[in-house]
Hints:
The protein is α+β, with helices and mostly antiparallel strands. The protein has 13 helices and eight strands. It has a three-stranded antiparallel sheet, covered by helices on one side. 18% of the residues are buried.
Amino acid sequence: MSTHKDEKNGTWYVMVRYHDWKGVKRQKCKRGFATRREEQEWERNFQLQTDGDPDMTFEAFMELYENDMRPRLKENTWLSKKHMIRTKLFATFGKKMLSEIETRDIIAWQNELLAYRDEKKQPYSPTYLKSIHNQLVAILNHAVRHYRLKSNPASKVGYIGSKEAEKMQFWTKEEYQRFAEAVMDKPMSYYAFEMLYWCGIREGELLALTPGDFNFKAGTVSINKSYQRLHPYHFDPRWKRQNSTSEPQRATGLHHEPGKDGRWDSDLVPRLFPRNCSGGVHAVSSGIPEHYRQKTRG
């Protein structure tokens, strides 16, 4: 490794040579350090990462964790996971050396989460607390299994929160039919809820539907993808589920004449349902009694 000062702008930069996981020799240049001390700290963490040494900061290890885990997860899942880690873990553990995180650090962190109250004086839900703690356990487990960390202090402390969520409520057929009558004056919302209820699909699956997914000759609708609004949207190619069958004209009220093979030309309309057709669940259900509105989930 070699350290240099850029005389033109007064910052430091470093040139490092290393071997990647395939054993290929590579070179990396990192610029823009305000001081030599910052450059040396980055250089040290980079060396620890390439050596697989757990004696690095939690924040530095997250780069390794992301490189290892992101390709294995759906994009939306990873972004949710990363947001939780950055907002709930970094403040406490970010600058700590991975090998120096102790059980007492985790107990103090857990107590802060348990004591939290928002502007409405509400605490974190038990399931959310467990999800936060799960992220820390998963990261440290990864360090134990693959990067020679001796043990996982988060597992020793034990979990907070609960995996049991509030009991989910379901509409009976009669309740749903009353709900459907209340939203018939909003055709797109009505068709969306008809698909959601009668076909048993999720919102992301609904929003990903295209005309080509419907086969009126066979009387089927193919559920084979999920729509996620990331930047600005994302069709998840790794999403898998068996196809569902239903009566499409009954479920959606769509009567466009399909082609000879019973399918529509998917190039005519990329997606059938806009992003907000089912998103306003509480808004579109405002015209029905409170008892039914409580069973909708946005």
